[in-house]
Amino acid sequence: MSERIIGSWVSGADGSPYGVTNLPYGVFRHDGREPRIGVRIADQVLDLAGAEEAGLVLAAGALRRPTLNDFMALGRPQWTSVRQRIVELLTDTAHRAAVQPLLVPLGEVELLLPFDVADYVDFYSSEHHASNVGQIFRPGQPPLLPNWKHLPIGYHGRAGTVVVSGAPIVRPTGQRATPQGPIFGPSVRLDIEAEVGFVVGVPSPLGDRVAAVDFADHVFGVVLVNDWSARDIQAWEYQPLGPFLGKSFATSVSAWVTPLDALTDAFVPAPEQDPPVQDYLRDTPHLGLDLRMAVEWNGERVAEPPFATMYWTPAQQLAHLTVNGASLRTGDLYASGTVSGPERGQVGSFLELTWGGTEPVKVGGGETRTFLEDGDTVTIRATAPGPDGTTIALGEVTGRILPAR
Ligand code: MN
Fold first, then answer.
1. How far apart are CA 384 and CA 22, in angstroms?
2. Model's pTM, two decimal places?
3. Most exposed: 89, 227, 239, 370, by fewest CB within 10 Å?
4. Ligand 1 centroid from CA 229, angstroms
5. Residues carrying CATH 3.90.850.10, the chain
6. Range(s) for CATH 2.30.30.230 in the chain?
7. Beta-sheet pairing, 183-186 with 391-402
8. Is 1 a residue whose pLDDT tops 70?
9. Do the annotations mark residue 373 as ligand-binding?
10. How far is the CA of 225 from the centre of ligand 1 (A)?
């Protein structure tokens, strides 16, 4: 009988925010070979394609694909059994000899976009963010529009411009308003939106609704999102149909998809909703996620948005986006909307952090900023409570601004 150890036999895993209670999925390239699915353990990647080829884990061949989509389509029972098997492989020393050769140092791999993005939806679910934006753009009027507490506001974004963390972001060019009339040129109010994205694994047929209680049957996991936003382009174009070119030039996601199974200890009661919501938006229990986010601007931590303060929950968002019968596809990504807490140091956009560009902030390198300049780098990270008082990390989403073309 093999020796069972409490933690992992992988060096550095115990006590790491990427220990065996985390195990996020990604897609990596190593040694110029084809993209492979892997799972992160400490500072290494377990080659899951290799593990499935060796018969160490069974997933109907879905782990031998260049993206996570086929695996995500398998559904929750398979997600959970594969995860349990990976934990076994990484904790039971009986498997060490077979598994060790499948570990690749993180520093040697290139991380790729982990899933083919099907449809992309972006919500607007932070009451603090919506109120701040309302005050900045519509001073003297009620900060929230009349519909805001009755439904999770959202729009359909551009799936084809979702890029993986690390991809450079070219400053967008477009129209913006000036007192002399609209002009055309590079955006001068380029911003971020720190968000959390939910990745759909199991699809739903056209015409069906997905109930809020079925959230965990459809949603595979979570990514960090930076919804880059050109505020000047956005302000001129957004009425009457909503965001368009001010958003669609790029949306960055983290390379690691944290499975919901790793976030069991992170679910917390969401803020109470008043007025009461329509029946289809009732989620019982009404739970959000206690993700603690951090925004770094050229290396300086400028904000710590608390995801637990979000007014609308991911289960409510899923119920809302399908209530009209719209189908879900494997690879659908829906993002929370900018995450902002009640304090200035908790906001998820520079629009709010600098109050519409009127209050510059200190960033790394001893400089000050209102909006992004060419060469700037923004990194968003997050952690969440794990089992037994531990902390897990949700990777990072980073991007550097290149000059307009
Ligand atoms: Mn957004």
1. 10
2. 0.97
3. 239
4. 8
5. 120-402
6. 25-112
7. unpaired
8. no
9. no
10. 9
DSSP-based three-state secondary structure for 137 = helix
Q: Are 118 and 90 in contact (CB under 8 A)?
A: no
Please tell me the predicted confidence (pLDDT) of residue 2: 39
pLDDT tens for 112-166 read 999 999 999 999 999 999 999 999 989 999 999 999 999 999 999 999 999 999 9
- Summarised one tens digit per residue, pLDDT across range 199-216 is 999 999 999 999 999 999
Question: Annotation-wise, does 344 bind a ligand?
Answer: no
Cis, bond preceding 240 (omega within 30 deg of 0): yes
For the domain spanning 25-112, the CATH number is 2.30.30.230
Place of tokens 């972001």: 169
Q: Which CATH class is domain 120-402?
A: alpha beta
Beta-carbon contacts of residue 223 (< 8 Å; ≥ 6 apart)? 114, 196, 197, 199, 253, 254, 256, 257, 258, 333, 395, 397
Report whether 222 contacts 200 (CB < 8 A): no
Active site residue 129: yes
124 is in an annotated binding site: yes
Name residue, tokens 């494997």: 330
Instruction: Report how far Cα 187 is from the mean position of its chain's Cα atoms.
Output: 25
- Is residue 374 a known part of a binding site? no
Cα(44) to centroid(ligand 1), Å: 32
Three-state SS for 249?
coil
Regarding beta strands 367-369 and 361-363, do their DSSP bridges make them parallel or antiparallel, or are they unpaired?
A: antiparallel
Cα–Cα distance measured from residue 320 to residue 212, given in angstroms and rounded to the nearest whole number? 8
Q: How far is the CA of 135 from the centre of ligand 1 (A)?
A: 17
